Amino acid sequence: MQIEGSIALVTGGNRGLGKAFVQALLDAGTRKVYVGARRLIEADDPRIQPIKLDVTSKEDIQAAAQAYQDVNILINNAGVAYVNSHAAPTSIDEARQEIETNYLGTLAISLAFAPILKQNGGGALVNMLSVASWYSNPVLGSYGASKAAAWSITNSIRMELRAQGTLVTGIHAGFIDTEMASSFPGPKALPQDIAQATIEGLLADREEVLADKVSHEIKAALAADLSAFYRRIQQQWDSSTR
Ligand SMILES: NC(=O)c1ccc[n+]([C@@H]2O[C@H](COP(=O)([O-])OP(=O)(O)OC[C@H]3O[C@@H](n4cnc5c(N)ncnc54)[C@H](OP(=O)(O)O)[C@@H]3O)[C@@H](O)[C@H]2O)c1
C-alpha cells in the first residue's frame, strides 16, 4: 500500500513501541497521525494529533470512531503484560486485564474502524502481536494467551475485510527494548527497527511481518519438533530463575 499522504491512528502511541510507530509513519510520509493514549500527550509536531483513547473504554472507542473518520491506517499497538505464574493470587485479575487490552481492545477498535477504513479506500489494519502469540512460557502464560487470541482474530478479520480492500497485517517480534520488557535480560530488538520492518511490510502489502531475528528463529523451531522446542524453553526459564 501507499503510506505517503495517509492518515494513521496508533493506539498506545505515547511511549515505547507506539512512539516508534508514530515516528516511522511520519518518516514514511504520513500526513497526520492520531496518537491514542490513556492520557492526552503534548505534541510538538503539527502532523501529530493527540487523542484520548483507552482501548478498554467503549465510550473512548465510540467517540474516536465518530471523530476521526479520515483514518486509513490503524495500528493496534496498545498492550499490557504481567510477569506472573498461573498460581499467583493476582493472576486471574492480571489475565483479565491482558485479555481486555490485548485481545478485546484490539477487536473493539478494529470493528469500530473497519467501516472507516472501507470508506477511505480499504487502507490497512495492523495488529502488534508477538512471538508469544505462537507459544507459551512459564511466566508470560496469560500474556501469551491474550496474544494468541489477538493473532487468531487478526487472521479472521483479514478474511472478513479482504472484500473491502483492507490489508490486515500481524506483526510478530521477540523482546523489544521498551518498558514492557525491562525486567527481562538478554538481547532485545530496537523499537525503531520493529517499526521500520512494519512500514516495509505495509509498503510490500505483507499480511504477516516477522519483524526481528527471534521471530524467524521461533517460527522455524516450532515447525520442527514441538516437544524439543518446549523442553528448550523450559530449560531456559528454569536456568534464568535459578
Ligand atoms: N516489549 C516487548 O518485548 C514486546 C514484544 C512483542 C510485542 N510487544 C507488543 O508491543 C506493543 C507495545 O508494547 P511496548 O513494548 O511499547 O510496551 P510498553 O512500553 O509497556 O507500552 C505499552 C503502551 O500501551 C499503552 N496502553 C496499555 N494499556 C492501554 C489502554 N488500555 N489503552 C490505551 N493504551 C494502553 C501504554 O499506555 P500508558 O502509558 O498509559 O501505560 C503504552 O503506551 C504491545 O502490544 C506489546 O504486547 C512488546
UniProtKB/TrEMBL annotation:
<comment type="similarity">
    <text>Belongs to the short-chain dehydrogenases/reductases (SDR) family.</text>
</comment>
<dbReference type="InterPro" id="IPR036291">
    <property type="entry name" value="NAD(P)-bd_dom_sf"/>
</dbReference>
<dbReference type="Pfam" id="PF00106">
    <property type="entry name" value="adh_short"/>
</dbReference>
<keyword id="KW-0560">Oxidoreductase</keyword>
<dbReference type="InterPro" id="IPR002347">
    <property type="entry name" value="SDR_fam"/>
</dbReference>
<dbReference type="InterPro" id="IPR020904">
    <property type="entry name" value="Sc_DH/Rdtase_CS"/>
</dbReference>
<dbReference type="GO" id="GO:0016491">
    <property type="term" value="F:oxidoreductase activity"/>
</dbReference>
<protein>
    <submittedName>
        <fullName>Short-chain dehydrogenase/reductase SDR</fullName>
    </submittedName>
</protein>
